Amino acid sequence: MPGLVPPVVDERACLLAYLAQQRDGIRYAAHGLTDEQATARPSVSELSPGGLIKHAALVEQAWIGFIHDGDSSIFMSDYDWTDGFRLVPGERLADVLRFSADVAEHTEKTVNGLDDLGAPLPPTRPGVPWIPAGLVWSPRWVLLHLIEETARHAGHADIVRESLDGATCWTLMAAAEGWPEQPWA
Question: Where are the alpha helices (DSSP H) in the chain?
Answer without folding.
Answer: 11-28, 35-38, 49-69, 93-112, 139-165, 169-177
